[in-house]
């Protein structure tokens, strides 16, 4: 089981490549993951929002898990996004990830009905009881419709043995500061809101969960290195240059913009799965300007 110090830095989200017939292209996924590791990402996090996990059948989910873990081959930690609408299938996904060799799972509470804090805590407790590897609790109300207060996150960190870290994606830096305050800095938290990464590192974020390294790996690494070294002037300069790109990929939807960017770079992995659509002509030109 990896320690919290081993899951750190730039945690890269790969997209899921699709052929024209909507079949997952595992060869392209393997090449993409290998490039992310070769480009020195500190960890790989497939099957989150960027990986279009909500649109995958279970056999497809399993294929992405197997391909990713096989290609990474222990070079860096792999955190599998295991979220699903039901507790039962979230457990199925988490168990599959553990058997395949994942270092941890990331779980976003997804529900048609708005969940109470009691229901959220029970959801995570059931998942924790079913697996032995760490759980990264993922708070992203923009996609899940469920917002977990820092106090609830700390309660689950305290009560559930393998809830060991939090990914905070609200874009509210006060959330991270509160997590640190409530636990005296013991609870590792990670930034999932691209445009607030500089503030997040200043608040003590252990890492940055991001799709950006698919297109611009080096600036992400440089920003992290500057933050780790306490060179905030350099970090500010890098962030200022990177910020328009980060804002663009978030505003345009990560699967859509990252896949559009990979095509522009000559490494196309197909279009997003409907109902998502590829970038329109204006979006392509704007992204071309930001990348090339």
From TrEMBL:
Q: Which family does it belong to?
A: Belongs to the DapA family.
One Pfam short name: DHDPS
Name of this protein: Dihydrodipicolinate synthase family protein
InterPro entries noted in UniProt: Aldolase_TIM, DapA-like, Schiff_base-form_aldolases_CS
Q: Which UniProt keywords apply?
A: Lyase, Schiff base
Give a Gene Ontology cellular component term annotated to this protein.
cytosol
Report a single Gene Ontology molecular function: 4-hydroxy-tetrahydrodipicolinate synthase activity
- CDD domains the record matches: DHDPS-like
**Which residues bind pyruvate per the record?**
50
Active-site residues from the entry: 138 (proton donor/acceptor), 167 (schiff-base intermediate with substrate)
Its source organism is: Mycobacterium syngnathidarum
What PROSITE patterns has UniProt attached to this entry? DHDPS_1 (PS00665)
């Amino acid at each position: 089981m990896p320690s919290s110090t081993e899951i750190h830095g730039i945690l890269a989200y790969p997209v899921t490549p699709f052929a024209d017939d909507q079949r997952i292209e595992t060869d392209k996924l393997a090449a993409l993951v290998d490039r992310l590791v070769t480009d020195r990402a500190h960890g790989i996090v497939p099957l989150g929002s960027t990986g279009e996990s909500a649109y995958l059948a279970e056999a497809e989910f399993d294929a992405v898990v197997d391909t990713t873990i096989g290609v990474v081959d222990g070079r860096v930690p792999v955190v599998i996004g295991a979220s699903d609408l039901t507790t039962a299938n979230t457990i199925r996904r988490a168990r599959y990830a553990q058997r395949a060799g994942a270092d941890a799972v990331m779980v976003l509470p997804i529900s048609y009905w708005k969940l109470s804090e009691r229901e959220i805590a029970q959801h995570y407790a059931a998942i924790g009881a079913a697996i032995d590897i760490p759980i990264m609790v993922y708070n992203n109300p923009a996609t899940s419709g469920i917002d977990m207060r820092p106090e609830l996150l700390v309660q689950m960190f305290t009560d559930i043995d393998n809830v060991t870290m939090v990914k905070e994606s609200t874009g509210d830096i006060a959330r991270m500061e509160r997590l640190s305050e409530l636990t005296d800095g013991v609870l590792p938290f990670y930034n999932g809101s691209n445009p607030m990464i500089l503030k997040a590192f200043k608040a003590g974020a252990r890492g940055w969960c991001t799709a950006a390294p698919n297109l611009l790996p080096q600036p992400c690494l440089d920003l992290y290195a500057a933050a780790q070294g306490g060179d905030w002037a350099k970090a500010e300069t890098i962030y200022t240059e990177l910020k328009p790109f980060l804002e663009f990929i978030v505003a345009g939807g990560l699967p859509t913009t990252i896949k559009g960017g990979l095509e522009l770079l000559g490494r196309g992995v197909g279009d997003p799965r409907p109902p998502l659509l590829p970038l329109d002509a204006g979006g392509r030109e704007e992204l071309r300007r930001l990348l090339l």
